[in-house]
Amino acid sequence: MELLGRVALVTGAAQGIGRSFAEALLRHGVKVALVDVNGSAGEACKKALDMEFDAACSVFITCDVGSPEQLKYAFRKTTDYFGSLDIVCNNAGVNNENDWERTININLTSVIRGTYIALEYMSKENGGKGGVIVNVASLAGIFPAPHGPVYTATKHGVVGFTRAIALTSKLSGYGVRINTICPAFVDTPLLNSVNCEEMMGKYYIFKDSVAKLMQHYGVLEPALIVQGLMKILQEEELNGAVMKITKSKGIHFENYEASLIQPELK
Predict the structure, then answer these.
(1) How many CB atoms lie within 10 A of CB 147?
(2) What is the pTM of this model?
(3) Which pLDDT tens digit goes with each residue over 37-74?
(4) Which terminal CB of the chain, N or C, has fewer other CB atoms within 10 Å?
(5) Among this protein's residues, is 151 annotated catalytic?
């Protein structure tokens, strides 16, 4: 995909991976809707980006992605402001084993909803011109994390949903490529959640074990996740790919057995 002049919507854009995504996209000439529930962090992010990039190339939209109405509004405002939509990064996520229902809502339900809303705007079936959707999961979407069973479930769900809806898009001619990124530990505010007993509940006892895992495997910088995003955007053959990013192997992909026989559309 040629990035110059494209329009992207990034959730969880005020900090961490989302902010790094937004900055990289702006640097490549993409117009970006910065979507985040944290209004003060979002405004600060927008102000900082405006010092480096044309202020007209980004817009901040306060949005709780767990709210269907707010998420739909964020997409509508993005297209009203920029006139189109080409790239969607469903990146927002939480790690809260105590409030596990919200974790499912933010990490999985909002990703599914964000994908479906994106398809409403971008699918050629609906008169759109195609595009790319990137759903951010985690290595916990491939391997079990005993210190976060609900987090694990949500990320497994993101991986499975993304692989399936990517096949749907191919079979139905949506013209939209859909892929997922599964990083290991990343140096973002989310990483600190394992040290919060209020969030982790009974799984708080694993905090020292998680710290040892981080020491053993290392902690990634968001910049490496950005490289993964750019690879997905620019390599047109990638659809339904599950990209893994680790300190030891860098960017690589999960290999699955051949898919079952797929249905044919008449």
Answers:
(1) 20
(2) 0.95
(3) 999 999 999 999 999 999 999 999 999 999 999 999 99
(4) C
(5) yes
HSE (side-chain half, CA atoms, 13 Å) at 8: 35
pLDDT digits (tens, 9 = 90+) for 151-173: 999 999 999 999 999 999 999 99
- Catalytic residue of the set 116, 121, 151, 217: 151
pLDDT of the residue at 14: 97
Distance CA 182, CA 158 (A): 10
CA distance 256 to 218: 26
Residue with tokens 């007209």: 56
Does the residue 265 lie in any domain? no
> How many structural domains is the chain composed of?
1
The residue type of 162 is: T
Instruction: Please check whether residue 2 lies inside any domain of the structure.
Output: no
- Is there a contact between 33 and 77 (Cβ–Cβ < 8 Å)? yes
